[in-house]
Amino acid sequence: MDFAFTQEQEELRREARAFLEANPEASLAQLRELGWLGVSASEERGGGGLAFLDEAVLFEETGRALLPGPFLTTAVVLPALPEVDEQAWSVEVDGLVPDLLHVDRVLTQEMRSVPAEGESLATMDETRPLGRLASSDGDQIDGNWEQVRLRLLSALALEAVGISQRALELGIEYVSQREQFGKKIGSYQAVSHPLADTYVETELARSLAYWAAWSVSEAAEGAAVAVAAAKAQCADTSVRACERSIQVHGGIGFTWEHPLHRYYKRAQWIDAFGGHAAVQRRVVAAALLD
Amino acid sequence: MDLRDTPEEATFREELRSWVEQNLTNEVRRGRFEEAGRDWSRKLHEAGYAGLTWPKEYGGAGAPYSHQAIFLEEMARAEAPPHLGVIGLGMAGPTIIAHGTETHKKERLEKILSTEEIWCQGFSEPDAGSDLSAVRTTAIRDGDEFVVNGQKVWSSFAHIADWCILVTRSDPESQRHAGLTYLIVDMHSPGVEVRPLRQITGEAEFNEIFFTDVRVPVDNVLGEVGGGWGVAMTTLLHERGTLGFALTAGLESQIRKLIALAKERGATEVQRDAIAREWIGLQAVRYTNYRSLTTLMKTGIPGPEGSGAKLWWSEANQRVTKLALELLGPEAQLIGENGYWQHQQLRSRGNTIEAGTSEILRNIIAERVLGLPRSR
What we know:
The complex is a heterodimer. Chain A is of the alpha+beta class. Chain A has a domain at 146-289: Butyryl-CoA Dehydrogenase, subunit A, domain 3, CATH 1.20.140. Chain A is 54% helix and 9% strand. Chain A is built from nine helices and nine strands. In chain A, the strands form three sheets. Chain A has a four-stranded mixed sheet with strand order 1-3-4-7. In chain A, strand 3 (105-107) and strand 4 (112-115) form a beta hairpin. By secondary structure, chain B is α+β, with helices and mostly antiparallel strands. Chain B has three domains: 7-84; 119-227, Butyryl-CoA Dehydrogenase, subunit A, domain 2 (Beta Barrel), CATH 2.40.110; 242-369, Butyryl-CoA Dehydrogenase, subunit A, domain 3, CATH 1.20.140. Chain B has helices spanning 7-23, 26-30, 33-46, 65-77, 86-99, 102-113, 228-241, 243-265, 269-299, 309-328, 340-348, 358-369, and strands spanning 119-122, 138-142, 145-152, 163-169, 180-186, 192-197, 206-217, 221-222. In chain B, the strands form two sheets. Chain B has a four-stranded mixed sheet with strand order 1-4-5-8. In chain B, strands 2-3-7-6 form a four-stranded antiparallel sheet, with no helix packed on it. Chain B is globular, with a radius of gyration of 21 Å. The two termini of chain B are 41 Å apart. The chains are: A alpha+beta, B alpha+beta.
């Protein structure tokens, strides 16, 4: 048993974090140039020939950086295509398409490749708008939607871990310098204990997200349950992490000016897309009890 | 990353599992706690499963921590009785290895492994619970002996123990962490009195220990006179070492029973959701232990991510046992054949108090892991 990323994977994480800090709105073309796309598509299809696990750290880091744009959806679609292409891709799940107006094509649950045409709708999370396709007519692709779905939900769970971690760090930074009643507020247990809970929950969520990513990567038995479990808990954790961080920030955490609300909205976006935590837990309950 | 057993780990698990199948008889399972426990503990020792991570030179197996983790998982899976020597194996032994003299090691360690001698822990006192540095039990030097007076509390196994690891104040003028001395005390010495503490479940798992002019040879000091705090920290570090695995393995068997109960009795949508939630939490804490273990095996120090395992487990066990009573419906009050869930639910209230209250654990995470300003 070895539950750690390799040195190469950790190195990729460090590079990704540094790059995204310098380029918070990096374009898909920039990320393609870095070799972040098609990592886990097979070599004969023009991909990197690596495993899903090798790109897992990227999703965690793009979540942490709140990267806008269709990186995640493109990355999870590419391994399903007959050939890795240079288009921007999205997916249609429950009739909704993330970043519809920022992509070239959309993969539907029926495995059709559809031109990205339709209507973009206003969303709570302004960094990841949802749209509806005008038509679902397109070219049939020979492949398995279930694999796309598992990669997608697993990637969202990883993003949620990145968000939880960042919300926690923002909370720690703030309560370590903010003073009230002549003391740093982080010394009050009513303030520090919720952050301790966020730490514990974030580490638990991280373990689930890595377990799910590994299960998808290895096509392990029970991967679908692992993914449902991770999506449920990681989304829940990220929403709660943001809520606690907003609370310990006091008034400033409630303002538009502070970045926390953007993490909070992304966390809720992740929870809703593909089914809320309670919906994912239904999958787990069925596996355990039926 | 590979979450499967290595071939070597798989072999160890396979051998252990078949050993358990042959040796964990119904007599052992149903036997009275003490006799059956001694018999079972002796068998474990003879098969080489006691002191897995202890160095070979002290009679251990010198095995990696992963073997200890597998051992704990398999014991919980088989619902084996607890090893009577848990305090000796997990706390007293490692502390003697770290701070004891050659004589201590020669005279005590083998008997810990064989369960010939059972140990208990004398740390907490009525006025020194979470704040261990407030201990008032005194050890006053008199020639080649210390004379010990005071009271300890919450000591598991004290009623059957042969030895006690005891934190005392040897300098009556001292304050807090200074002036403490760590002794190993023969529980059969004159002046040692053990009284069982009947707890919320009706049984007496813990004891009070009263020390009245108990004479302890100076040779029984572990570490330096006055250096007891550091030695006590070694003990607590070992208590928390692979504790996460033991707890998680216990929770796993609890949740397996919960699922069986839900299948037998039926569960509402809300209860199904709650069961799924607890199962997910179990996987989360289990894999977090694995991550921490991987760090431990690579660097010799467990990763900080494991620091939340006990905190999470204790609250999860409280929810799980309560959920089981809810599944029993209005019959939850009926004790029935053995009152398993009623007992487990009441016992679980101790989980957030023993081995570090949840409040203290949150303080430790806030201050030592997150680096927040100290609350005291």
